[in-house]
Design brief:
Rossmann fold, six-stranded mixed sheet, 7 helices, two-stranded antiparallel ribbon, alpha/beta, 39% helix, 226 residues
Length: 226
């Protein structure tokens, strides 16, 4: 999973400050402030070999804050909302995962849909029942995949970016998350039945990062590959 892999070095950096982060929002904020030029290189399957897209922690934090501002303007969204993220590339997944976290909501990372339309509809309806969520973020290119259902409220990131939003409500929710609060939901592949949602809490993720960082004696100069 890409979340812990690229946060090893962020956590190693943040532990050198006086106070360790209490949640994922603080984790990225600390990395952006203390190591603004460090970041992530993302390699696309369709890109030439060795050519990647680099995004610094400071730029990721800036984009995530801006996108969180857009998410908070979604109609009927509430503090307990779980937001399904359905993308087919790492950059969109990373950017909008952090946007949902900073906005103070719970992201659930989608898996690829079945090609069979009946199975796809069944899968989507199962996700709605499992997540108790009616909100999904995707791209305009992937929006047609949802044509088999009329339950989920689909919001494309292109549409959100076109809206002039002045909402400032819930602006501190991301920073106020406690260790026991749910950070995200990870969906299983569903290969042995319906997909299940695995709960990850802020404290669990930070604890895992801390343990792995200490075990491998990581520093701010280490590079991680996933």
């Amino acid at each position: 999973m890409w979340l812990p892999s690229f946060t090893y070095s962020i956590f190693a950096s943040s532990t050198q400050s006086r106070q360790s982060p209490h949640n994922l929002c603080e984790l990225l904020e600390t990395a952006a402030a203390n190591f603004p030029t460090k970041g992530i290189t993302i390699y696309s399957p369709n890109a030439p070999r060795g050519v990647g897209t680099f995004i610094s922690y400071s730029e990721l934090f800036r984009r995530a804050k801006h996108n969180a501002f857009l998410i908070r303007g979604i109609k009927n969204i509430n503090p307990a909302s779980i937001i399904l993220l359905h993308f087919d590339n790492h950059l969109d997944n990373i950017e909008w995962y952090w946007a949902v976290v900073i906005a103070g909501f719970i992201p659930a990372i989608s898996t690829p849909f079945p090609n069979d339309l009946d199975l796809r509809k069944k899968h989507i309806l199962h996700l709605v029942d499992t997540l108790l969520s009616l909100i999904c973020l995707t791209s305009e290119r992937l929006e047609p995949e949802f044509a088999v259902q009329d339950v989920l409220n689909i919001f494309t990131i292109e549409h959100l970016r076109s809206i002039q939003n002045s909402s400032s409500e819930l602006s501190d929710r991301g920073l106020s998350q406690a260790a026991d609060d749910i950070a995200s939901l990870i969906l299983t592949s569903g290969s042995t039945g319906n997909a299940k949602a695995v709960t990850l809490r802020h404290g669990q993720i930070l604890g895992a990062l801390s343990g792995k960082s200490k075990l491998h004696n990581t520093s701010t100069n280490d590079v991680f590959f996933n």
